[in-house]
Amino acid sequence: MIIGLIADDTRKTLMQNLCIAYKGILGKHELYSTGVTGRMIEEATNLRVHKFLAGSLGGEQQLAMMIEQNQIDMVIFLRNADKTLSYDVQFNYVIPLCDEYSIPLATNIATAEMLLKGMNNGDLEWRNLYRQ
Which terminus of the chain has a smaller tally of CB atoms within 10 A, N or C? Predict the structure, then answer.
């Protein structure tokens, strides 16, 4: 499966910790991320991550394009709902796209863990059929 990983600045350490905890599962899949988040994940886990530009420089748009082309199977977007960032509107474009294209989306750690465990149990295999 192809997984998109995005984290607001205040959630990057949380994303690192999630990826460390689920390294065994994530290592079986293809990972895409915005630039800084991807670099931090690689440094913490030694997982291979395809890195887009930094989020504020267009990385979120690159991920959105993959969603629109049905090339992403799941998105984990750890965001700070309490703080409005200058590029938040651009990132929020990813959320409705996931809805439109039936891409499983986690916006918090609890849902991210459930999606990762479900994926590991084969609960997201329907994406393979949907992608064809």
Answer: C
